[in-house]
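Q: Start with the shorter request: fold the first protein.
A: Done. Sequence, then structure:
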Amino acid sequence: MTTRRSPITANKPASVPPPHGYAGPGYGPQPPYGYPQYAPGPGFQGAPGGPGQPPYNFQGYQASYGAPPLQGQPGVTIWMPTPPPIPNCPPGLEYLSQIDQILIHQQIELLEVITGFETSNKYEIKNTLGQRVYFAAEESDCCTRNCCGPSRPFTMKIFDNVGQPVIELIRPLRCSWCCCFCCLQELEVHAPPGKLVGYVKQLWDPCLPKFSIQNEAQEDVLKIIGPCIVCSCCEDINFEVKSTDEKSTVGRISKQWTGFVREAFTDADNFGVQFPLDLDVKIKAVMLGACFLIDFMFFEHGHNRQQRVGVW
């Protein structure tokens, strides 16, 4: 006896196994999309983000726009963290209480390099980690810069990380000849601007460049003595910071060699200033001013693009 098949069952195709990755009778539960479709090998601990596993961490992703940039990231200025307030410390000088050395980098002005037209100097002041501590900008008029050259009077404002001026340096116009002992170089240091904290005064000496670091009462605290020949090729030029009796060395101001091209075609200089860690922050600020005065006196180019060279 022949059994007749219904039209529905007659056209139904024979059952085939479901495609890989789809659930079907006898195949058991399939893993979600994005997880391994094969049996894990020995030592497999599970994929990050999976059930019972820690969430996946995207490398290089910052959780918020305000997150601090990475140290050394190109094009990003890293500022020194703001220290806590210190009693009887002028505002903004707390940074100096934590360091015993600062680096000063003068910025290259393209207009000055191309045209020889004297522009206002700008400096970055950093610690030994490369973090910016302050930013300094010269304030002087165009006529004074190009008529008086390196001997020009100026006001230098030094700003902290929020753009507030914390130190002000004032240099009056004085004669630049060492033989003129009646009109020597001088620099006033204010911290904050308007409050006098000390002076840098040139001392007359027929052989060596000498300076006195003084407090607000014009009392000598330290002395700076430079080399007889303020010129050197391929090495640093050091100005020693000494005690008032000039017997012990307590610090140093160094003009760092920056290479033939930069030394020949620009007046953008690099300096290092070293001082005792426990030195009064006001005197540290005065030493910072002494570095700028030394830069203008000995390493700033004149109209003929020639640096002051010779025996002092």
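Q: Next, the second protein, separately.
A: Sequence, then structure:
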Amino acid sequence: MPLAEAESASSPPKVPIPQRPVRRAVSRKQKAVVEDGSSTAATATQPDTVINKAVFLRKFTENALLQVKEGNHEEYSKLVKVFLYSQRETSTSPEQYVQDVTPWISAVSANVSALDISYRELVGAILFSDWIAAPDDNFVHRYSTLVLEIVSAHPAWVPQAMASLVRWFIYGVQATEVALAPAVHDRLHALLEQVYRAIPTCGANMAAAITDAYPFRTAKANVQVLFLQNILRTLDYAIGLRREVL
């Protein structure tokens, strides 16, 4: 027998080596979502990537809230930072703010039942952010829905929610606010009416917030007029407040 044939006959058959599935590394962009306020969260273009990010943000939020109960505030602090925004005090543009916060709204909404008094920093950041003056109507609608969900699930947050909304009564006093003021006030009263109808007992909190925010007598006339105009608009749907605020 030829040598080559002998070697072939004596050699064991070759068994194909199964290939291990390649594990996808954790996306650096996903990590950046949490580290820098989620600016990369809105860059996804593939549907599966968008879904994965939504799941990631929802789970991150859930874990951050759970860790607070265990005394660990590291991830929770990052979550709070996402929602902190003031047009006058931060350099972030309104457009960038909308892009950063949008993917987190559904993540918090999925965990809204957990937002009790233990999470006052997060709820405070959500309520007192300048979201209502954002340039995107779709964003404002989603955000207002989140606020309504929070107060509906936890009426204890109604006083803070009312205080955060009534402060917008005088929006439009500054020259830079005039153009957007009508839209802001429309958004404001749409949400106030929703809260008032959803939580009938909130009238006292609304009246207290209006009383606390009432301009001093030394305030400029345009401030006084703007505040009164919004009070009167409030009374169109919150009839029960008339005795308390007039």
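Q: Describe the second briefly.
A: The CA atoms of residues 23 and 69 lie 33 Å apart. The two ends are 114 Å apart (CA to CA).
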